[in-house]
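Bench notes, afternoon.
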Amino acid sequence: MIPKKIIVIGAGPGGLTSAMLLASKGYEVDVFEKQGFVGGRTSGFTLDEFTFDLGPTFLSMPYILEEIFELAGRKLEDYIELREIDPMYELIFSDLSFFPTRNQVEMKEQIEQLFPGNGEGISVL
């Protein structure tokens, strides 16, 4: 039997995930991307002396990647080594810097210090 051919438009996280899952089911998959690079939101750009991350938020939730790879019959750790980074990143405002962390107690304290009255908006487990 000749495998069905599928075209995926976009090589961002969603397109690459779709292509991987479809290929694991035996489909012949071609991925097309308008940019000169793959990654979509997991990429970044530089403007003057500043570098901007386009937001690979799913990388802060490795269980999502593990599930995707498992659905495709693969193991994430066979392809990449994840390392926790803390703080996760830095947000720079004109008058302050904010460092998001997975430590919920520390995060709440930082929010309250930088943005008084807003610490209640985060729940601590």
